Amino acid sequence: xxxxxxxxxxxxxxxxxxxxxxxxxxxxxxxxxxxxxxxxxxxxxxxxxxxxxxxxxxxxxxxxxxxxxxxxxxxxxxxxxxxxxxxxxxxxxxxxxx
Length: 98
Known about the structure:
By secondary structure, this protein is α/β, with parallel strands linked by helices. The protein contains three helices and three strands, in the order βαβαβα. It has a three-stranded parallel β-sheet, sandwiched between helices.
């Protein structure tokens, strides 16, 4: 396992609950803090509630996209929750392993 370093990208996805549109300002501040320590943030396509109706397929897509994106060095989940179990059977474990 490699350490993350300044300039690396951190991917953020919502594997359970989605982020609220009304909180975009606070989320932007959090991203700024991450940027200040030298990391870059890439949000998944479906992290916000306005993008989807909480579709499992979109959560799976975001996770698999982050795993296969060679610029992403770490994946952070925006929220925890019970619904994450719904995506486990459909993750690209082969890509995760490599």
